[in-house]
Amino acid sequence: MKKKKNGLLRAFWYICMAGVFALGLMTIISTGGGGGDDVGSGGGGTPTLLDVYDYFIDTDLAGEYLTISLTDPPDTFTISVKTLGRWLAGTFNRVTGAYTLESGAERGASIDSDVGDTLLGSFNITVIASLQIPPDNFPTAGSFEVEYGTDSTIVTVVDVPADGVTLSLNGGPAQHFTWAAFEDLFGSAADDWQQRASLSFLLLEFMFEQLDFVVETLGFIGDHEDELQQNITVTENCDAFPQGAAPQGFLEQGTHALTWQDSSGNGEVGGGDNFTWTFTDCWDNDPNDDFDDLINGTVNLGSYTEVVDGNNRVTRVGFESPEGVVFTNLVISEVEEGPPGTFTIDPNDDVTVNNGFTIVFTE
């Protein structure tokens, strides 16, 4: 049974939408069809995917930044994430599902945690040694710096005396935390500098969850290309509550639906098109867990790019400027089961995501 976390920390444990789809895919769409950004056909047939892609994420969409809002009564907090320089960047291994996050002066994010009620102020995260992230696991190497005013906290991934991190404030002695203890610092009674370090990592985790979300979406589009071209929208059921047991005001079984907009006007799914996910009371139930998430809202994925070179290889794919990936009041609610068969939702635990990012995978 999973322990319920404090209202701040749980925000970053429940915003992973890839699990909603249960696709089991680690592929990138390769339609090979027409469209605004398709280049060449390499002689026809299904385009070849590269084993490894570079990726680039930019959270600046016409001056609007990705925001996460959450409540810890009586306060309501909103955290904005703005990429430093232009990009968060790294590599994605399509075969293994592993990521890296590159280091550099402009590789990180500017965080404002006081957009709503006062939380931990504004601070910067800069990757100073490339983070190595295996699939569905914590980083195995790397480090990043959290800068707040004149304070500098170095967070270093370590494997001794146990897997986790060390934290060092302004060059002081390193303090070791396991991964669980490190994540639990945010929203606790720990010193603010430690909470900022923990929040920084949770935000980086959140961004990698969005990478997974986009990869899963690309795979979903590829698997349902013909159905989208025929029906425009593909709708699938989410998990169902037992009959008569849905929380008050919610459907017994919700849905998630992907809608295709043929923005290129060529009648085929491909470059230049737009897509929209619509989540309606979409419950993702883990039978081994008493706390699960339920999602409502929309995610628009626009300015779809797909480039196939003369050798029939997909060399660039993603959702780029000006549209990108945009959340519109996407609300993640926490469903609690207790006693068995009784399900409730506390609206004070809702988390709302708005705005978004552009993302591209390229050779």
Outline the structure in words:
- It is a single chain.
- With 363 residues, this protein is mainly beta.
- It has one domain.
- It has a 19-stranded mixed beta sheet that branches.
- The longest helix is centred in the middle third of the chain and has 32 residues.
- The N terminus is likely disordered.
Share in β-strands: 35-45%
Q: Determine the fraction of residues in helical runs and give it as a percent range.
A: 10-25%
Broad shape: globular
Output the structural class: mainly beta
Report on the biggest sheet: 19 strands, mixed
Uncertain parts: 1-5, 16-43
Number of strands: 19
Rg (C-alpha, Å): 21 Å
Q: List the helices and strands in order.
A: HEEEEEEEEEEEEHHHEEEEEEE
Number of helices: 4
Please report the distance between the alpha carbons of the first and last residues. Answer: 43 Å
**What is the count of distinct domains?**
1
Average per-residue pLDDT, rounded, comes to 86
Keywords:
globular, 4 helices, disordered N terminus, mainly beta, 45% strand
Chart the SSEs and their pairings.
Blueprint (H helix, E strand, L loop, with lengths): L17 H4 L26 E2 L2 E7 L7 E7 L2 E9 L4 E6 L5 E3 L6 E5 L9 E12 L7 E8 L2 E8 L5 E6 L5 E4 H6 L7 H32 L1 H7 L1 E8 L12 E9 L12 E11 L6 E18 L4 E25 L5 E3 L5 E12 L1
Parallel strand pairs: 1-17
Antiparallel strand pairs: 2-5, 2-19, 3-4, 3-19, 4-7, 6-8, 7-8, 8-9, 9-10, 10-11, 11-12, 13-14, 14-15, 15-16, 16-17, 17-18, 17-19
At a glance:
The protein is mainly beta and 363 residues long. The chain has four helices and 19 strands.
